[in-house]
Amino acid sequence: MSGVSATRFSKALVSFKTAIRIYLSFIGRSVIGSKIGILNKLLPYTNSASNELTIIISYFTNFVLLSLFELHLFMKNKILYLLCLLSFQAIAQPPGSGTKWTPEGDAYLESKRGAIVKFDLKSQTSNTIISADKFIPSGQASGLKITNFSFSQDQKQILVFTNSKKVWRFKTRGDYWALNLENNKLHQLGKSLPAASLMFAKFSPDGSKVAYVSQRNIFVEDLTSGKIKQLTKTNGNPGIINGTFDWAY
């Protein structure tokens, strides 16, 4: 190959490498540095090439192999990200209208038209186990609009999440009500706190108390006495967050 041809071909190879760099940057910026390192080792261009066709084929083959390898890592990372996202949502976010399995695992519960309905998998039948009228607060004409719900461990009480508001992408802030299924007493939690400010409420193991978050602090409320105990204090510092989380930059 003449000197002029070798120079032109070297420039073409440099342009080809640049195109590959741009392609890899679109596929996965987080790993482009390591891939370019591999690329430089696999694709050593030269000014004294003796067979243009052989080099072009070599470059193209290595480019395809790198692309497939990068695609594999990209899809693997996407799957891991999806699993982490789903796990995060299952743990930290209320699952919409809520579908709950019974302790026996042969039926599930869901909210329908303000009531709690049980669907039996064996018989393929459904029946209302808590009617909508049980969720009508005293002095109100209509029942609670149920966003989510959970039972105490002994299944004698149900915690209802309603009046929900979005915090970024998910409805995690709202009001909570506890219904005692033995005496049908419906009790609103956190009455002294701002409306729709409660988050992540949960029964204690013995069902006597409920813990929740409000305004970046953690509270525990006794269901018998209605007494609310504040466990944390931010002392007016907006940088202190208790019971929930914020973005990290």
Number of helical runs?
3
Q: Give the overall shape, derived from the CA principal axes.
A: globular
Average predicted local confidence, pLDDT: 77
How far is the first residue's CA from the last residue's CA? 54 Å
Structural class: alpha+beta
Output the CATH class name of the largest domain.
Mainly Beta
CATH superfamily membership of the largest domain: YVTN repeat-like/Quinoprotein amine dehydrogenase
Summarize the structure.
The protein is of the alpha+beta class and 249 residues long. The chain has three helices and twelve strands; from the N terminus they run H-H-H-E-E-E-E-E-E-E-E-E-E-E-E.
Describe it.
The protein has 249 residues and is α+β, with helices and mostly antiparallel strands. The protein folds into two domains: 90 residues; 132 residues, Methylamine Dehydrogenase, Chain H (7 Propeller). Helix content is 31%, strand content 30%. It contains three helices and twelve strands, in the order αααββββββββββββ.
How would you describe this structure in keywords?
alpha+beta, 2 domains, 31% helix, single chain, 249 residues, four-stranded antiparallel sheet, 12 strands, Methylamine Dehydrogenase, Chain H, globular
